[in-house]
Amino acid sequence: MSKSIKAAPEPEEVPQASSTLLDSVNEPADIRGFNDAQLKQLADELRTATIDAVSHTGGHLGAGLGVVELTTAIHAVFNTPHDKLIFDVGHQCYPHKILTGRKDRIKTLRQGGGLSGFTKRSESKYDPFGAAHSSTSISAGLGMAVAADLQGVEKNVIAVIGDGAMSAGMAYEALNNAGDLDKNLIVILNDNQMSIAPPVGALSKYLTGLVSSKPYVNAREMGKKILPPPLRKAAKAAEETLRIHTSDGTLFEEMGFYYIGPVDGHDMSQLLPTLRNIRDNPNHGPVLIHAITQKGKGYMPAENSNDKMHGVAKFDVVTGNQFKPKSSRPSYTKVFAQSLIKEAQKDDKIIGITAAMPDGTGMDLFGHAFPDRMFDVGIAEQHAVTFAAGLAAEGMKPFATIYSTFLQRGYDQVVHDVAIQNLSVRFAMDRAGLVGADGCTHAGAFDVAYLGCLPNFILMAAADEAELTHMVATAAAYDDGPLALRYARGEGTGIEIPEHGQILEIGKGRIVREGTDVAILSYGTRLEECLLAADQLAQKNISATVADARFAKPLDEALIRDLAKNHHTLITIEEGAIGGFGSYVLEFICNDPPLQSSNTSIPKLRTMHLPDIFQDHDKPEEQYKQACLTAKNIVERVSS
Predict the structure, then answer these.
(1) How far apart, in whole angstroms, are the C-alpha atoms of residue 61 and residue 313?
(2) pTM of the entire structure?
(3) CA 266 → CA 70, 117, 131, 502, distances in Å?
(4) What confidence category does residue 203 fall into, taking pLDDT thresholds of 50, 70 and 90?
């Protein structure tokens, strides 16, 4: 495929601005009169501002530092927000937020009432599409390009997607469709050879081959000699030195894209003329610019960090040292990983699977212990689920360890490839419940509802670290169908962790505290608040039984029946959406013959769950207050 890209005129030289160009920038229109030298200076200032902001709030740092020049160049060349800029994933958008009218609020990132850590349509007209899960930008961008064409509106649509996000099947579906439709769409592949963890798979190897190929290396050196500072022949230079092809063509060209690259994503002298040439050719069709960037670029502590300081707490700008609160309590993620390692030491059929989140799920620890039995499949949750199903079909014991909110992306595979075939895949769902600063896109609110409706599933939720240890052992031993185990983000309760997990009886809960008046039935990590509520009720002369359900499916029917018969009020509480555990309990009570007999008095029933909204980011304790899932709320519910 070949298309001509004509030269664009250079911008007129303007007087040099002050040394603090960023102070004069309130929106992208303010930078479109800057010359190239000023844009480079602005990028340097933008990098400093990004580092400073994240040092105060914590958040995603390395990804944003890697796209500072790209972000500056795109906003300088294109007419945003009329032209649409979509970031994939949104954690690279902090520099973009600074340039698009949110500079004065940037130090509220991920704080209650402050800016989101991702792009968000309701936050700014410069965020045309929200992105916190990866690999959606090309599909969304193609939709916008088609809409513009149907409406007769000329506009550019630019999707910036990382090499890790490009590993997902959805990105290829979109590329295939875009190449076929031949609409004006600009895809910038931000290739930093690292997403959250080092990328995996054939694509990563292919891109690495492009970057290290002799034609690219030779052309890059030639370009340094050919492109003088004034860039008077920028268009020709870009066409001759930046559009590099391997001898057998490229994957992207075969899919119908005009491929440009690889280009240095930190070199304004390459980025600006390339973007201008495309902008000034209104019928350019689908174009892919392959930009090589460095995650954490320009900040030595990030460049030297293994994860390039992907996600950080507040930190000291000079040293890069993070201010993480010291705690003797292990995280649930670590407890899960350590428990799984112990089970795997006894059972060589146990396999660990993650979808590009080895550190976030604890699978990095499992991988260190069992490198031949841990598989990171990349950002490909659909594949991860069916891959696990294939392992289970051959008698292995796969643990598909995926965030609750990310498992949603593989739901069709959960239904058809696992549940219908009754295969013994164990789903370990990290980040079940509220997640604080990451907000609604990462909150695991729906898994109980979306898995509980599927036949053959066992659902468990750990109330504390000890229970999590027992449930990992139970999952390892259970081999009669699919099973899902949910556990929270963050630290545990500080309870003593057993050396080895005990295998729990499927569908059996436990009484934690005996009482006579009120029964509080907890599913998951709200158990600690339930016990605190019981203490507060005792001060009001109300005796409360506190029970840990352990299982949402199958329910402990005998336990629920006993609680309903012997207490005047029964309250269920869970850190999940409506339609989950509480709904199952109500369904059982309404249809249980012994409880519906004329001799049985049905207690007052109350359910407590996450509100029917997408909760914004905030401190976890504030989110629980907003959700009315605290001990105080439980006490109030007793009286309601």
Answers:
(1) 10
(2) 0.84
(3) 7, 23, 23, 54
(4) low
